[in-house]
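Sequence in, structure out. Go.
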Amino acid sequence: NLHDPALTEDIASRLERWGAAADWLRLEITESAVMDDAQGALRRLNGLADMGLELAMDDFGTGYSSLSYLKRMPLTELKIDRSFVSNIMADQKDALIVSSTVELGHSLGLRVVAEGVETQDEWTGLQMLGCDVAQGFFLGRPMPPDGIVAWLEETGRDYLRVPSTEATRA
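Output:
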C-alpha cells in the first residue's frame, strides 16, 4: 500500500467516513517497503504524518536498514524484531543490538517497542535495557475484542507497566 500514490487520500477519506481521528491509527511500515521506492514512500509517509497518524518502523534491523532514511522518516515508533529480543539474556551481542537500538530510537525521539516477548527473562532484560513497550505472548495472546476488557480488568497485571529505568536499577 505504501507504493499507492492515492494512499494518503484514501486513508483521509476513510477516517472522515468513520468519524475517526488520525491519531487513533498507527501504521507499521517494513524497511523493505520503504526501500523499494524510497522517495515516493517518504512523500507518502510525510503526508500521513502531516495528517496526524503515528508511524512505526516494523522489524527494525532485519531488512535494508539505512540510517540516512531512518532520520528522514516521520516515525513515532521503532519496533525491534523478535530475532534480537528472543536471546537477550543469553547472547551478549543480541543484548548489545537491542540496547543500541533503544538508545538510537530514544535519541531520535522515538518510542521503542520490542516484538515477540515470550518469556519473563526477555521481559526483564528489556526493562533493564530501557525499552519503552513490549508486545508478545508473555503479555497476552490474541483475543477477540469482547475479551480485552475482561483481560485488562484481571488482577496481577503489574507487568503491563514497564518500570522506569531508575526503578529497575533500585
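Check: Residues 163-170 have pLDDT under 50 and may be disordered. The two ends are 46 Å apart (CA to CA).
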